[in-house]
Structure to design on (486 residues):
């Protein structure tokens, strides 16, 4: 399969769909268990399989398209991956809109985290423990070894098999049709990581956790709590326990390792607390969320007061109580910027902008966003809202410049492409509009819609160079679409 290499008009940005990643270095000194897969799949092939699998997840609407949650996961994940045996692998962490407790790793460094897991962990070190474990599965190529047995298949087929394995390990009945359709019944026996896989991921994950300065005791504490809770669920086992089988022997082995080290209480970051508050506010109805956070801030105070008030403002905004939201926001910002560790937080500033927009003070809001974006130039949620405000204020040229800069940093961000398509539409640039929309669809895994948009871009006309790039993209997308049908 060839590369898509589309020079984006006026940006110098090269978009390489699916096969856009340079080969990743393989660490020396890996245990034999991890080396076997490399005789079949190269690091680049693992990356390609993982990328195609993620695109299938995006197409299935499971992907949790929230920039703040995903950016937090990547910040935490990068910190951990830096202490792994393959820090240059190019890990990518993303959330799924699923309140079941689970997390999983795909070949090539792609790690998914269910929203349910984010809400279940009782501290940031517990979340870091799960991510460290998944990072170890990647660096030891465990899932790649399961997929590598299908070496005669295309990369697209192997990506589909990877998704089927994950689905089957989470819900074996639901996956049978998928496995049969790909003639992969023989892989049913490989659906669970072996005890050796899990022990190795525990051991290496603990090393990563310790090097990254988290509380290593959080790993056995989380697993032990899940196991005890399972006994009360009458067989309704959390997905994490199905995909990562836990035994008393395994927990004892982890405890034996960590008990040799002193217990260190590592405080949670404010971002961790804010992400959890945001999820709680999203999960509940607006009235229930208001009641929940009001109670948390009331006589029976519990949790981080800054995070709880953040959740309250979010819920009030959803319920269109703009006056009270404005009052609570003032208190929130004052709380967040007081004390020894005082600093402005981009999530709080993004929420402040949303409250200001709801209050419809457009002149003041534009000035607020200009300052906020200068302070936090890489906070995507803030960029989204500012670009939308610019478009609503008929400042499309400014929006295009802002979005083009961001796409250099985030070349697979579908929301940025959607906003850019809107900007070009307002400017009457139909070629650029349809091309931007095509890239948005392509990164969502909607290849047929992407092809339709590129055909519309051709009809709009362009320079010889632009049309040549469109033809190259069309050939590649049609080839990928054909491979996905097989």
């Amino acid at each position: 399969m060839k590369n898509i290499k589309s020079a984006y008009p006026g940006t110098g940005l090269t978009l390489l769909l699916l096969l856009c990643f340079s080969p990743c270095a393989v660490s020396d000194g890996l245990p034999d268990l991890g080396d076997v897969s490399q005789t079949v799949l190269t690091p680049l092939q693992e990356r390609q399989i993982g990328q195609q699998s993620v695109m299938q997840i995006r197409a299935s609407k499971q992907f949790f398209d929230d920039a703040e949650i995903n950016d937090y996961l990547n910040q935490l994940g990068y910190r951990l991956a830096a202490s792994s045996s393959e820090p240059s692998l190019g890990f990518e962490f993303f959330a799924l809109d699923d309140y079941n407790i689970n997390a999983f790793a795909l070949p090539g460094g792609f790690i998914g985290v269910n929203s349910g897991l984010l809400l279940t962990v009782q501290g940031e070190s517990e979340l870091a423990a799960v991510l460290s474990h998944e990072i170890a599965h990647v660096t030891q190529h465990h899932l790649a070894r399961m997929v590598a047995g299908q070496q005669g298949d295309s990369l697209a087929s192997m990506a589909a098999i990877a998704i089927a394995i994950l689905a089957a390990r989470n819900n074996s009945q639901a996956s049978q049709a998928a496995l049969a359709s790909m003639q992969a019944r023989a892989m049913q026996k490989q659906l669970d990581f072996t005890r050796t896989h899990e022990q190795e991921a525990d051991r290496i994950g603990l090393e990563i956790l310790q090097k990254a300065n988290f509380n290593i005791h959080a790993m056995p504490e989380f697993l032990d709590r899940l196991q005890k809770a399972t006994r009360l669920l009458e067989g309704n086992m959390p997905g994490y326990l199905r995909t990562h089988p836990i035994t008393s022997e395994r927990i004892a082995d982890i405890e034996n390792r960590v008990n040799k080290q002193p217990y260190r209480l590592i405080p949670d970051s404010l971002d961790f607390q804010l992400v959890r508050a945001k999820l709680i506010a999203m999960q509940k109805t607006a009235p229930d969320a208001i009641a929940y956070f009001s109670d948390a801030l009331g006589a029976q105070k519990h949790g981080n007061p800054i995070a709880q008030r953040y959740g309250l403002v979010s819920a009030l905004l959803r319920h269109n109580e703009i006056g009270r939201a404005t009052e609570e926001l003032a208190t929130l910002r004052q709380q967040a910027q007081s004390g020894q560790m005082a600093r402005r937080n981009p999530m709080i500033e993004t929420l402040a902008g949303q409250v200001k927009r709801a209050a419809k003070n457009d002149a003041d809001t534009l000035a607020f966003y200009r300052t906020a974006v200068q302070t936090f130039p890489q906070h995507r949620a803030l960029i989204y809202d500012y670009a939308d405000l610019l478009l609503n204020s008929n400042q499309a040229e400014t929006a295009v410049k802002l979005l083009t800069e961001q796409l250099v940093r985030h070349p697979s961000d579908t929301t940025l492409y959607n906003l850019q398509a809107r900007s070009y539409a307002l400017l009457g640039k139909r070629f650029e509009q349809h091309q931007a929309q095509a890239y948005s669809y392509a990164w969502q895994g909607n290849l047929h819609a992407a092809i339709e948009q590129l055909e519309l871009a051709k009809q709009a006309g362009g320079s010889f160079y632009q049309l040549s790039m469109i033809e190259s993209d069309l050939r590649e997308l049609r080839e990928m679409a054909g491979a996905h049908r097989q």
